[in-house]
Structure prediction request, 958 residues.
Amino acid sequence: MYSEQELETVHSRIGKDISKHIGTTRKLLMQPSSSQQDIGIDKCAALVAKMYKDAGCEKVEIAETKGNPIVYGECKGDSDKTLLVYFMYDTMPFNEPGWNHPAMGAKIVDMKLPAGKVKAIVNRGADNTKGPLATFLNSVDACNRSVGRPPCNVLLVAEGEEELGSPNLPVYVKKNKKRLSDADACYFPYFAQDPDGCRTLMLGVKGVVYFELKCSGKSWGRGPEDFAVHSSGKAWLDSPVWRLVHALKTMTSDDGNRVLIDGFYDDVAPPTQEDEEVISETAKTWDPKMAKKAMKVSRFMIPDTDREELIRLYTFASTLNIDGIWGGWIEKGSKTVLPHKVTCKIDIRVVPNQKKDDMMPLVRKHLDMHGYKDIKMTEVDSGYDWCRCSVKEPVVQAMIRAQESFGGRPQVWPTSGGSVPFYVFNRILGIPFTMGGIGHSDLAHSPNEYMVVGGNKKIAGLSDIEKFMVRFMSEYSLT
Amino acid sequence: MYSEQELETVHSRIGKDISKHIGTTRKLLMQPSSSQQDIGIDKCAALVAKMYKDAGCEKVEIAETKGNPIVYGECKGDSDKTLLVYFMYDTMPFNEPGWNHPAMGAKIVDMKLPAGKVKAIVNRGADNTKGPLATFLNSVDACNRSVGRPPCNVLLVAEGEEELGSPNLPVYVKKNKKRLSDADACYFPYFAQDPDGCRTLMLGVKGVVYFELKCSGKSWGRGPEDFAVHSSGKAWLDSPVWRLVHALKTMTSDDGNRVLIDGFYDDVAPPTQEDEEVISETAKTWDPKMAKKAMKVSRFMIPDTDREELIRLYTFASTLNIDGIWGGWIEKGSKTVLPHKVTCKIDIRVVPNQKKDDMMPLVRKHLDMHGYKDIKMTEVDSGYDWCRCSVKEPVVQAMIRAQESFGGRPQVWPTSGGSVPFYVFNRILGIPFTMGGIGHSDLAHSPNEYMVVGGNKKIAGLSDIEKFMVRFMSEYSLT
Prediction:
């Protein structure tokens, strides 16, 4: 661990270098890296490798995979503890409407949050998660430039396919198991403060499966098969769009919230005693209003008054979500056609003890049983399994201690509603993990994604976030 | 009426001018005129006016409306009978995928049809209905250049908003009622042979209503309201997409073919005795296989063996068709989002004695009664009412006689499944109408729309179609 004086030295370095750090962060954000659209991936991998070197990593490799490269780096630290730090350098696409500033312009703007005024960088990936990637490297850079080494050894693994379901990460980890087994724990840096400043710590992630359902006249053998025909044909022809609508409606309750697929919830484990304690504790301080404000929604599925149940939903509900649906004439005006095909993108989030590999077969079986054998199902992403870590794990306790030194114990959640491929490290290397940090960012996958760089009393700015990361490594080196 | 010698003179002229006629047809086709997208409308109106003049019309006007102009022309004929010829110079959009030749290239290609080899022009509007427009003007041109006048007076009314539901045509007709009341009947030229050469005559058209349903978090007050949020939110947020799916499913039977909206079929009149006779006669010669071949479908909603019922469906079924549906992430890959809105385009075809103005209120009432008051409904087109004409009408009998002189009595259908705004002339001017001709074209609203110009023994080529149109005018002048 660092002495208090060493921490002071690093903090001072961070203070001096903060403009440079904002610069490197903006540079990384502005480099496109949309894995869905295969835009800028190689350039971004090269930039990340350069950032590793600039931050003082001894060993840097751009490892080719069957898909996008993985950028690996090593940095010797001040203790024999080794942290595997997982990053993703890919992002969601950035070409949707609704951006108030250029999606790739990394503009620094004034922003008014429930916690007060801040300065934030608006850019795709600022929240998810090139912002945290750059910030962590800034903290390592500061360690190397001041004390000469970080508090612990770090192995850096940055993949470029997280948004594709990390298909090649397990392969890479298995192949490099010997080297990566030096790690005692895994860490995923991100900014975990709510817009009101509330600091949260997630003990896990949900798994995710993503696929498309396609109904077409061709595979059905009814209705138009080769092209959309004149809509007068509806009088004597079947419609693939109506068919998909009726197939979909069998999959959920009328409100769209309860999944009616046989066996869907069978493996869902009830919250453990520890989970319930965590939920009960969290419900004391969690403010549903703030969560709604961030998403700009008027109401949750259930009343706000039942905070514990809301937290239980967010953390324990396995969901079937329509991400997108399209078919036929979707432009302006009235083209009167009977479409020959329609497609629907669906994601399922899996929770303990569901298995992601079980989910598509369950949906397939459901469709078959309801007479929809012709509806095609295509996996879009290879998906993740869920992953959990006990609050008692030393690496989690190190995270909590670091949090306490920056403003008290964080609100602990059994899991995030999102998905990160921790199961890869957890199941292949058998190591525990933790995630998060301080600071605030939001709007992952949405327009106007942002990260706070200039903070206030309630929300950490970039320099405090970096200091926190150094503190966390130091606490971890003690475990 | 023309004498046989005059007919001979015109036919000879058509034979000499056929290359020029193909040229003017291609020129008109290649001029974009997509009313949905407001592309090329004014240029096309000017070109149609020029074609009127070139064909020998005495009076030509481009009449402004609140929307696209109407091109009016008059040509004095050989009798005191006056035919109002209705055209549309607008087309559907032409930018969908699937074209094997440029959608606006008017390429002349070899084509193999069930009736044998032909030469066809492939272009948006070739079938629907700039091809027939040009062809009719060619026939008038030939009359004026040979005999000196057509067999009857013609009033030409070409509108540029048919694909928008002809919102300004009724206004125009009311405003010009005095002048247009000279007409004894109305005619809509098109190529009415099937791909096997079967000649058909439609005694009417269905009406049509076109609207959008939109479900959004904003109007619902549940789920995401301002943007698509991260799909982890599905755990505690409602989904506008699921809502629309469940709203839609209430509107039809599980197979999508029977409309379940209360009152939807209430006003549907059963076929009359005359209708049943026409159907029974038509069923003797109509070949379902040919119709399926043209649309490239494997099967109709009901077995082919029940020909009468198939014809009854096509002519008497009131339909609720989804033309398009879209929401959320509809591009490549897996953006995991919970969409904040979803839209669906729907057309309803109305038959005797439904009223198009009743249909949207019925849908609205249905949605309200099922608890979907928040789902927005927007009229996209002003729509048409249905229109029918007895087979006994003199103008229809003239059409049948003209057909007989070109290869026997046509197959008569009580109505087309499509929609043309004849109700405007029928109800405002109180005149009967007929439609069609010989020749073949197909794929209205679809890629690779075409019209045959070089025919064979079974399918008329352009010169025969033009001769037919002259013959029809001549027969009509006798009535």
